[in-house]
Amino acid sequence: MQLVLHAGVHFTEDERLLKCLLRNVDDFAARGIVVPGPGSYRSLIRDTLNAMHKTPASPEAREVLLDAMLDDAPAERVILSDANFFRTPATAMQEGMLYPAAPVRMMRMSQLFPEDPIELFFAIRNPATLLPVLLKEAQDTSDAAFWGGREPSEVKWSETISQIRETAPDIPITVWCNEDAPLIWSHILREIAGIGFDEKLVGGFDLLTSIMSNEGMERFRSYLSAHPDISEVQKRRVIAAFLDKFALDEEIEEELDMPGWTEELVAELTEVYDEDVLAIQRIPGVTVLTP
Hints:
The protein has 14 helices and eight strands. By secondary structure, it is α/β, with parallel strands linked by helices. The protein has a single domain (2-212, 247-289), classed as Rossmann fold. The strands form two sheets. It has a six-stranded parallel sheet with strand order 2-3-1-6-7-8, sandwiched between helices. Strands 4-5 form a two-stranded antiparallel sheet. A hairpin with a 2-residue loop joins strand 4 (93-94) and strand 5 (97-98). Helix 5 (102-112) packs parallel to helix 8 (157-167), helix 8 runs parallel beside helix 14 and helix 11 (214-226) runs antiparallel to helix 12.
């Protein structure tokens, strides 16, 4: 059985990905792909991972979790989604590192499911827009606890991802930039589900619908109807063109509320983020989905 973990992250797509997957639950089940309801596993897995901090999981833990999640449904691929797999927003940034608990928690997941191949998926987001949000949510907002003596430009996703690969080397990782998600939403869903572009999928434009005007979506769907044979790459270019003209500004513009941060610093952090994405692409065992 393949186990797929979607770990958010926080403040990216706000559960929309899970909702899209659940819209396909019957079609997926016919292919051996199971998307359990989150209530069947989220608190159970979190409690188990937290308990493993003190003592190893029992040999029966895997079966107990699977029984709770699957309810005897046959499954070849099980998809779990929880932005709190890596801990809560309150501890998402500590001492200058994004999700410092993630490496150990993924190591424990591999210990919890030793017989099952695990795949990890999550979005990353520009620290220039994410860090101000995480600071507001932080359990401890002191400079020492949050920044750990680091400058904002030193906070990099590649550090977290590299450490996950070190602690859980058997877990391949797939990430994407949240900023690119509207262009590749269908691709993300298909990668998580493990299905091809020629297979039926409901919700491939759900994210696009939330950030584009009704007129734009109507024209976009009409364009696709008139050009049914365009490739996925061409389709992404069309999406980008329609977003340029019909995007809802209030849905895509992000207000930065960080005292002392200038436009120049935000531009610098964005450049560092772009360079970090290139560094992530070079990490063995990591796939970066791009438009």
